[in-house]
Amino acid sequence: MSALAMLGGKKAKGKPFPVWPYYDSNEEHALKEVLESRVWWRTPGTKTLNFERSFAEFHGARHGIAVTNGTAALEVTIAALGITAGDEVIVPNFTFVATASAVLFANALPVLVDVDPDTYCINPDLVEDAINSKTKAIIAVHMGGHPADLDRLKAIAGRKGLALIEDCAHAHASEWRGRRVGTFGVAGTFSFQASKLMTAGEGGMIISNSDKFEVHARSVHDCGRMPGEWFYSHFVYGSNYRLSEWQGAILQVQLGRLDQQTKRRHENARLLDRLLREIPGITPQKLDERCTRNGQYAYIFHVNKKVFAGLSTERFIEAMNAEGIPNQASYPPLHQLDMFRNGEYRKRLSGKQAKDKHKFLKQKLPATEKAAWETVWLPQPVLLGDEEDMHEIAAALEKIQRSAKEL
Ligand SMILES: Cc1ncc(COP(=O)(O)O)c(C=O)c1O
User: Fold this and answer.
1) Is 196 assigned a catalytic role?
2) Using 50, 70 and 90 to split pLDDT, how confident is the model at 53?
3) What is the CA(354)–ligand 1 centre distance, in A?
């Protein structure tokens, strides 16, 4: 009989991985407190306000604005920067759709550029090439928790007078040269959706060190109101992006664990780097030496099919799951999403921009193709396990590599 669990063999994984989301009596207590206070709404409350302050401080920012989710954090940021119809924003082609759809939401064009073939973060050379007179901002996504090249992106944005936005949906507590991400540009946006590094089911945050930006963003997130003004004054276009007190209360507790959990995820990921490099055909996402801590929303590795008897990524993932190792496929390239292929995205644009041929849809984006179709992700809760768990992951991979031709 084959040793592979998928073919009836024994699973490589013994004890289960830690469950996610993690909670204890602190979350229960925090929720009960909100319940009994009868203050469930953010506006008169203190829980979300306090969480905004703590989260911003944790990331070295002067301001934090809690919002309903990570997509909303991007939408509010883009609106607060005044980005609008006719403008362009440079976005990596390899990311979750929200990074680009938030730009379309503002009726602006997301210009999709390829990523670095080793870190899978936006390629600064290609960012430079994509800049023109319509460009207003660059969105850097810290893929899987690994910061994009913030030295180069900050320099480019500074030289060209563009806003740099960090999409930190994967990167709570990640560090670049010893400094936490989120304040290298004008704003950093975060998600607290269920799979993220800390969660309230849904939720988001914008952090910034710019007082001017904060005033705009806070107003946009609260129906265009201004602090201290009459409740029914609406000074700018805005919407209701406010986070509830329930979520603020839970997230405050989750934040209290983030540093310890990040340490564990980062250290386990480095152990996996060492173990997985020994397995033929497996290449972990590169860790740039300037990334002093990776928040590790995911552990990403490339699988060279040739060394795995031509095994498809889908079949590889099934085999890993059968061994008891949760793992998943990557994001598809954005330019191949239906809305870009069938032209639906143009409905968000106007004038010449809606009719133009958008070059990025026809370009070859080889690093994105590689990242999208040939990498596999271990979700972050796996990295909260112990050393034995990491050895079991490596053992499962070795087993699949050895027996790939049976699959
Ligand atoms: C890179 C990236 N940006 C933005 C988002 C949007 O966050 P949310 O799901 O909270 O709207 C996500 C969510 O998965 C993401 O992965």
Assistant:
1) yes
2) very high
3) 26
Which ligand 1 atom is at minimum distance from the Cα of 192? 10
Residue bearing tokens 């990242």: 371
Token digits of residue 259: 């540093």
Question: What does the alpha-carbon distance between residue 401 and residue 386 come to, in Å, rounded to a whole number?
Answer: 23
**Which whole-number Å values give the CA distances from 79 to 136, 212, 303, in the listed order?**
12, 13, 40
Coil/strand/helix, residue 189: strand
**How high is the pLDDT of residue 1?**
46
The one-character DSSP state at 324 is T
Catalytic residue check, 225: yes
Pocket residues for ligand 1 (CB within 6 Å)? Answer: 69-71, 95-96, 98-99, 141, 167, 169-170, 191, 193, 204
pLDDT tens figures, 365-395: 999 999 999 999 999 999 999 999 999 999 9
How remote is the CA of residue 15 from the centroid of ligand 1, in Å?
31
User: In this predicted structure, what is the pLDDT of residue 364?
Assistant: 87
How many whole angstroms separate alpha carbon 374 and alpha carbon 363?
19
Write down the architecture of domain 25-254 according to CATH. Answer: 3-Layer(aba) Sandwich (3.40)
Q: Which residues contact 54 (CB under 8 A, 6 or more apart)?
A: 252, 255
Report CA-CA distances (Å) from 52 to 46, 49, 247: 10, 5, 11
* Whether the predicted model's global pTM rises above the 0.90 cut: yes
Q: How far apart are the first and last CA of the chain?
A: 13
Any idea which residue has 């209290």 for tokens? 256
Tens-place pLDDT, residues 294-330: 999 999 999 999 999 999 999 999 999 999 999 999 9
Q: How far is the CA of 226 from the centre of ligand 1 (A)?
A: 27
Q: Which of 87, 114, 116, 167 is catalytic?
A: 167
